[in-house]
Amino acid sequence: MVEEGVNKFNKSVENDRGSWAGLGLKPAKTIYATIRKHKPETIIETGVCNGVSTLIILLALSKNEGGELYSIDFPMPADESLPEFRETAYPEGHAFSAIPADKEPGWIVPESLGDRWELVVGKSQRELPKLIRKFDEIDMFIHDLEHSHPCMMFEYELAWEWLRSDGLLLTDDIHFNDSFSIFCNVREPKLYGKMSNSTGYAVKT
Ligand SMILES: C[S@@+](CC[C@H](N)C(=O)[O-])C[C@H]1O[C@@H](n2cnc3c(N)ncnc32)[C@H](O)[C@@H]1O
């Protein structure tokens, strides 16, 4: 499904109009195995784009026969208005991830996996507080959007407050800045480290 998606993306999006930006194979496999093992009931992910991480999570939940995924994404369609759109909608640290102009976030996810998934379209800074407050607690949080220091700290701190004890925070692109190590130094997770060169994890005490 991912390979098919990449081929369709490459056919419809020129190189300078945005990148695929999907999660790498190693973190994707680790996330799948983690969800299969720990069977989280409530997962929130931020950053859907074409939908690699979303697909992996939903495949694992489907195999578990339990759990729900809530995702937030403010997509960047690869269309003619891109330069202006980039400047106004995407602050520093954004890597120009894009979806084909005629698609929705998570378009590679097959309909058959959709019954465990709710997508919220909008900026995380506005939508995450509203979404997370719908739950008493969450089991897993995955950050993969706007890797600016303010946005990463905002998401980590909010997710940490809502994560249950032993809940898991995962974050891609920790090499963009020091946000993840600062967060871990301050919050002192029970366990933390790297799943790959660019992906970090932290387990709440
Ligand atoms: C790196 S991509 C996500 C990749 C995805 N996790 C995957 O594995 O395919 C980041 C996505 O977040 C969106 N985005 C960037 N900043 C955002 C923000 N502040 N709020 C919501 N979405 C944002 C981008 O448009 C893009 O769709």
TrEMBL record:
Organism, scientific name: Salinadaptatus halalkaliphilus
Lineage, opening ranks: Archaea, Methanobacteriati, Methanobacteriota, Stenosarchaea group, Halobacteria
Record's keyword annotation contains Cell division: no
UniProt keyword list: Methyltransferase, Transferase
Record keyword Manganese present: no
Name of this chain's protein: Class I SAM-dependent methyltransferase
Record-level GO BP terms: methylation
One annotated GO molecular function: methyltransferase activity
